[in-house]
Amino acid sequence: MVERYALEPLKSHWTLESQYKRWLEVELAVIRAYEELKVAPKGTYERAKKNSYLNVEEILETEKVVDHDVIAFIKVTTSKMGDESRYFHFGLTSSDVVDTANSLALLRATRYIYAELENLHEVLLKKAFEYKKLPTIGRTHGVHAEPTSFGLKYLSWAAEIERNIERLKNAMDEISVGKLSGAVGNYANIDPEVEKLALSYLSLKPVKVATQVIPRDIHANLINVFALIASAIERIAVEIRHLQKTETLEVQEPFKKGQRGSSAMPHKKNPILCERLTGMSRVIRSYVNSALENIVLWHERDISHSSVERYMFPDITMTLFYMIKKATYLIENLTVFEDNVVKNIDKTKGLVYSQRVLLKLVEKGYTREEAYKEVQKIALKCWENKSSFKNEVKNYFKFSQEEIDEIFNPEYYLRNIDVIYERFK
């Protein structure tokens, strides 16, 4: 955990104390199931719950001796119990507890992420409609292409977040599983009904087939969705970074009173938040390979996945939560220099209207090949001479002023965007 990026409530969610509480939650659910099935005497669950003893320091000290965190947890937690301790961890293996508790941890952490993602989606949609009618230059390969709507940038981002919300919803459903089926997953020492009941108390369902562990493709899918969300945020951040370049200056990320951009150059306002989000996205994507590697374990299970997940689960959820919160702040407080947005359309002195000229010539009887060659010839001349493409076109092709005004009108490029926006109502 990097303290700098650890936000509540996820910071507390991943403490050792919280982990042990989840383990206890699983153990008590099993005892409750045993009692309901009349395997354990009436009152066993309440006594176990009342007399369970969680002390992080004592568990860690015990672990130094037994070299096994779950055994240390069991020894300390049951140390103040009476006869009810007989049913604590009865028929279970360590992975029953750890894997089921990890499902709880991931599911609960993801719910926080999901809520923030929905909020980001709403903010993006609001901005998309706010800037719907603002014409801007579209760029392909980093080069001016044709005018478009500035709001469509936001709408494209919102659509991607919308897809990721749906992906996350499906991944949350898939991760809502536990396993309480014993050492190799075949219920040799525990009744399947115990698992079914215990997991129902935790709002989980049994995984269809387990070994000693829940199959790790389930976790890998969730991690992959996290990476897709992070990449969506990075796409936003990179676009803003490009648009904040001094030569472009169409937007600027929030710059607080008293903030400083450079230790050497007092004039600097750098896109540090966007760059931070870009870097964090790389970290999150790096976990995808780790999650995929965890799928392949020896036979019914080895322990190679365990150390990876101790890093991965807390780090990836806390980092993504931070990213979404900051991305929402970024979008809400982004400065858009509308005058520059419009002014930059004409930076090439009208060259971005070349396709409109081409199509107008085709309407007048030119073949497409003839029109393309003629327009390109004039366009390249204007590029080299830095002259007005609009004037050259008017003089060369003898267009009327009305035709010229129609061709070189950025509003033309917004005429069909309502069709796109209608999909988001």
From TrEMBL:
It catalyses: (2S)-2-[5-amino-1-(5-phospho-beta-D-ribosyl)imidazole-4-carboxamido]succinate = 5-amino-1-(5-phospho-beta-D-ribosyl)imidazole-4-carboxamide + fumarate; N(6)-(1,2-dicarboxyethyl)-AMP = fumarate + AMP. This is Adenylosuccinate lyase. NCBIfam families: purB. One of its GO terms (molecular function) is (S)-2-(5-amino-1-(5-phospho-D-ribosyl)imidazole-4-carboxamido) succinate lyase (fumarate-forming) activity. One of its GO terms (cellular component) is cytosol. The keyword Electron transport does not apply. Belongs to the lyase 1 family. Adenylosuccinate lyase subfamily. Keywords: Lyase, Purine biosynthesis. One of its GO terms (biological process) is 'de novo' IMP biosynthetic process. It comes from the Bacteria. Its EC number is 4.3.2.2. InterPro entries: AdenyloSucc_lyase_C, Fumarase/histidase_N, Fumarate_lyase_CS, Fumarate_lyase_fam, Fumarate_lyase_N, L-Aspartase-like, Pur_lyase. Pathway: Purine metabolism; AMP biosynthesis via de novo pathway; AMP from IMP: step 2/2; Purine metabolism; IMP biosynthesis via de novo pathway; 5-amino-1-(5-phospho-D-ribosyl)imidazole-4-carboxamide from 5-amino-1-(5-phospho-D-ribosyl)imidazole-4-carboxylate: step 2/2. Residues 349-425 form the Adenylosuccinate lyase C-terminal domain. The keyword Lyase applies. Gene3D superfamilies: Fumarase/aspartase (C-terminal domain), Fumarase/aspartase (Central domain), Fumarase/aspartase (N-terminal domain). It is an enzyme of class 4 (lyase).
